[in-house]
């Protein structure tokens, strides 16, 4: 049974007539009968064109940390829009947003705004290359850093069997249209295995400009770094003069106000932020400390963007950071997310299904596998069919986790105790149906 009601199907037909596959981003296409068209969002809910309401755990793949249409953000954005948004000059709103950012993320000395996570990682990588005078980048399997050519290797779409041996991984190209020559500048490794990183650096560490890492795997279940892993990456970068980039596009302003640095106690040289910084508005930042971020100021390493720091985006960022800075949204997501994680775990145990709840309360995934995953290769051992069946059953019951098993569930602070109870009941019924 498809997900589209009558009106949604009509709108999707219209969407298909003008948008390729009816979507503006490939991950939104769920098939001809299942791709929804959304009328609006309100707090923790989204409504499709037929008026069906869903408790939303996609939250736009993470950004909507306060809930849809949050009044404080909406008001700030409306005021900024009315005051003009794009001047090709620095604005007071931009300065205020940057100051708030630095207060929230205290390891950061300076930043520049941009619009998307893709732009942020592209600029961070160029800055690292310009600063070090080296070309090669190390990234980890199952991590996604946006759609530019330099990082579209061994992303979460890769078949684990195509990744080669653990000790000698083959970077798997995630798209056609990327020049073959780019492959020479990328190294890929499984996450959470420091020995492999040390081995690679012993052979070519002095050619590696940057390690770019999602501190927890926001595009593969929410797998956590093992004790000492991020510290080890920091130590290796220091030893070889390599720039450590935390890609915090998913973790930033979500897992803690100060992001992964606050959560894990390890400080990178550069961080890329987006998503939860603007509660759904397109705002991102490349932030850093010391000589690395100062390299931009010395000239010669290009960074630009017509819309970077535009009024609406930075107003959204300031308003979102203000609300997040009260601490209340984090307390709420911690409490409700913990209830959900524990509840889902209990339901699986009661129904005799082996599952692991991976991640943190604001961003986690139930993984149907015998062992808890520690890297992306372990994804090969999870029961994807069961997950997809359960999620389909939940969506039919008005609860919408991401339908892709690798993508974590994202919470927003607008979620209520009742929503959590509804979610657990829907999960229980859907699991019973799928396993019965
Ligand atoms: C960790 C990470 N980095 C970068 C990106 C790219 O961000 P955007 O989609 O805004 O270009 C994403 C998108 O999901 C992401 O999860």
Strand coverage percent: 15-25%
| CATH architecture label of one domain | 3-Layer(aba) Sandwich
Stretches with pLDDT under 50, minimum 5 residues: none
- CATH topology of one domain, anyone? Aspartate Aminotransferase, domain 2
- If you average the pLDDT, what whole number results? 97
Output the helix-strand order: HEEEHHEHEEEEHEHEHEEHHHEEHEEH
Number of strands: 16
Q: What distance lies between the first and last C-alpha atoms, to the nearest angstrom? A: 19 Å
Which CATH class of one domain applies here?
A: Alpha Beta
Q: Helix content range of the residues, please?
A: 25-40%
Q: What structural class is derived from the secondary structure elements?
A: alpha/beta
Main sheet strand line-up: 4-12-11-10-9-5-8
What is the gyration radius calculated from CA atoms? 21 Å
Largest sheet: 7 strands, mixed
CATH superfamily of one domain: Type I PLP-dependent aspartate aminotransferase-like (Major domain)
Q: Helix count?
A: 12
| Overall body shape | globular
- List the ions, cofactors and other small molecules found in this model: pyridoxal-5'-phosphate
């Amino acid at each position: 049974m498809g997900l589209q009601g009558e009106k949604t199907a009509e709108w999707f037909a219209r969407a298909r007539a003008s948008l390729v596959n009816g979507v503006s981003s490939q991950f939104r296409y769920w098939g001809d009968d299942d791709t929804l068209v959304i009328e609006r969002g309100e707090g923790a809910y989204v409504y499709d064109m037929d008026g069906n309401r869903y408790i939303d755990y996609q939250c736009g793949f993470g950004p909507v940390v306060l809930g849809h249409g949050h009044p404080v953000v909406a008001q700030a954005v409306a005021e900024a829009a009315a005051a003009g948004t794009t001047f090709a000059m620095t604005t007071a709103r931009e300065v205020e947003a940057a100051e708030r950012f630095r207060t929230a993320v205290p390891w950061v000395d300076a930043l520049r705004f941009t619009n998307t996570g893709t732009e942020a990682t592209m600029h961070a990588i160029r800055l690292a290359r310009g600063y070090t005078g080296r070309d090669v980048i190390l990234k980890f399997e199952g991590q996604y850093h946006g759609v530019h050519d330099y990082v579209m290797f061994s992303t979460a779409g890769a078949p684990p069997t195509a990744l080669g041996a653990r000790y000698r991984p083959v970077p798997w190209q995630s798209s056609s249209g990327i020049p073959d020559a780019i492959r020479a500048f990328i190294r890929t490794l499984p996450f959470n295995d420091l020995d492999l990183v040390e081995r690679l650096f012993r052979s070519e560490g002095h050619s590696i400009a940057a390690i770019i890492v999602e501190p927890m795997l926001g595009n593969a279940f929410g797998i956590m770094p093992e004790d000492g892993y991020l510290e080890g990456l920091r130590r290796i970068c220091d030893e070889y003069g390599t720039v450590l980039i935390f890609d915090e596009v998913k973790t930033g302003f979500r897992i803690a106000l100060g992001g992964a640095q606050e959560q894990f106690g390890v400080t990178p040289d550069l961080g890329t932020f987006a998503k939860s910084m603007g509660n759904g508005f397109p705002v991102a930042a490349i932030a850093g400390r010391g000589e690395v971020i100062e390299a931009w100021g010395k000239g010669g390493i290009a960074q630009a963007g017509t819309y970077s720091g535009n009024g609406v985006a930075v107003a959204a960022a300031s308003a979102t950071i203000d609300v997040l800075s009260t601490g209340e949204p984090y307390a709420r997501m911690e409490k409700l997310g913990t209830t959900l994680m524990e509840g889902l775990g209990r339901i699986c145990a009661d129904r005799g299904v082996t599952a692991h709840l991976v991640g943190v309360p604001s961003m986690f995934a139930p993984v149907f596998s015998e062992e808890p995953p520690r890297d992306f290769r372990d994804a090969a051992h999870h029961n994807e069919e069961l997950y997809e069946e359960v999620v389909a059953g939940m969506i039919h019951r008005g609860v919408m986790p991401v339908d892709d098993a690798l993508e974590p569930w994202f919470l927003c602070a607008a979620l209520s105790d009742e929503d959590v109870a509804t979610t657990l009941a829907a999960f229980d019924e859907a699991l019973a149906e799928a396993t019965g």
